[in-house]
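QUALITY CONTROL LOG
STEP: pairwise intake check
CHECKER ROLE: data steward
CRITERIA: each record must contain a sequence immediately followed by its structure tokens, with no blank fields

ENTRY 1 OF 2
RESULT FIELD BELOW
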Amino acid sequence: MDFCIRSVSQLELLCTIGLKVRSLQEQIIGFLRQAEAGMPIKETRRKHGFSDASFYKWRSTYGGMDTSAAKRLRELELENGKLKRRLAEVHLDIHAAELDQLAFDN
């Protein structure tokens, strides 16, 4: 089942739920390579059904990458998200402990 990516938010949603992330990144890199090879951006965009904004966002993210670099980027983004969630949990735990201490002192 292939997806026609129409926006960056759709790609991010699909990546979040883990649907064909590798093939989506490969598609995007393929779109960028077509444009680099001389195919007009408007033609690439019309042929594959995505917006100018998506193209330029993808180019800023994936420009000059091969598929293995894109895979590594995705792995790092997932790890970063996990670390951010863990940090937020630790901050909540600290705040809860401070509130408990204030309630105990009063």
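ENTRY 2 OF 2
RESULT FIELD BELOW
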Amino acid sequence: MNFHKSPLRKGDMVLILAGEGRGQTGKLLKIDRKNDKVVVEGFKSRSSQNKHKKHLGPRESFIHISNVMYAHKDEEGNMIGTRLRKNKENSTRIMIKNNMEVA
């Protein structure tokens, strides 16, 4: 199985780039790296009516990872890259536009 790399992590704020929620921001709840899909809080929610799963309320559905971009503090979208530290043991995530580290 091949798993695809992505700089996005669970808990990041993302900007939705395409679809009915274009321009909205939300928290990243789940990442499916095998199928390149993500779940964004409050976006594309649908009601589930399966009584066997015991989940009858609204729930979010998956969207493709190419339709979201990292958003820093509800601002415009920003691309993320990695930078090696001077000790070259570990790397940090940085925002490409302003070279700031991502928390």
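INTAKE CHECK: passed for both entries
DESCRIPTIVE NOTE, ENTRY 2: The beta strands are 13-16, 25-32, 37-40, 45-47, 58-60, 63-64, 68-71, 77-78, 80-84, 91-95.
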